[in-house]
C-alpha cells in the first residue's frame, strides 16, 4: 500500500489499502443468501450444485462485488464514491479467501471535482482473479 496523509495526495500508480477477507464458508453463503434474498440453490445446496456438474456450492458473485465496494469505501468513504463498475472473471469457491486490491490509474477533473480512477480486483489466496473493475472517487 502507498501511504499518504490524505486522499488528495494519491497519484496515478499509487495503491490503496488492500482488503483481505476470511475464507468463504457455508455459513458465509447462508448469511449472504438471507441478507440478499438470493437463495439460488447453486450457492446453498451441495446436492443441487453437484447435479449441475459442479464440485460444490460457490459464492454469490455479488458477495465478492460487495467486498470490492468495501475496499473502495473503507479507503475513500461512501460519500466520495461516484461510479463503481465490475466484470466477473471467475468463480469464488468455498474456502477461497478473497483478497481485494486497488491502484490509482488516473487523476482528473469533472463537474468541479477532482477525481481518482482506481483499478480494482478481487482474487483468491492463489492470485486467481474473480472480479475486475474500476471505481471513481471524488477527492475535492
Automatic annotation (TrEMBL):
Entry-linked InterPro entries: HotDog_dom_sf, MaoC-like_dom
Domain of life assignment: Bacteria
One Pfam family named in its UniProt record: MaoC_dehydratas
Location of the MaoC-like domain: 23-91
Gene3D superfamilies membership: Hotdog Thioesterase
Transmembrane segments: none
SUPFAM superfamilies (UniProt xref): Thioesterase/thiol ester dehydrase-isomerase
Coiled-coil segments: none
Protein name according to UniProt: MaoC-like domain-containing protein
Amino acid at each position: 500500500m502507498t501511504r499518504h496523509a490524505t486522499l488528495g495526495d494519491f497519484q496515478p500508480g499509487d495503491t490503496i489499502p488492500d482488503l483481505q477477507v476470511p475464507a468463504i464458508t457455508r455459513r458465509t453463503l447462508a448469511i449472504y443468501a438471507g441478507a440478499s434474498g438470493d437463495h439460488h440453490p447453486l450457492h446453498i445446496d451441495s446436492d443441487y450444485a453437484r447435479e449441475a456438474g459442479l464440485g460444490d456450492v460457490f459464492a454469490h458473485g455479488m458477495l465478492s462485488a460487495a467486498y470490492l465496494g468495501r475496499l473502495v469505501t473503507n479507503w475513500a468513504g461512501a460519500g466520495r464514491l461516484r461510479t463503481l463498475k465490475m466484470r466477473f472473471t471467475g468463480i469464488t469457491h468455498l474456502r477461497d479467501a478473497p483478497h481485494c486490491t486497488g491502484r490509482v490509474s488516473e487523476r482528473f477533473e469533472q463537474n468541479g471535482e477532482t477525481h481518482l480512477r482506481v483499478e480494482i480486483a478481487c482474487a483468491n489466496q492463489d492470485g486467481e482473479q474473480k472480479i475486475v473493475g474500476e471505481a471513481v472517487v471524488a477527492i475535492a
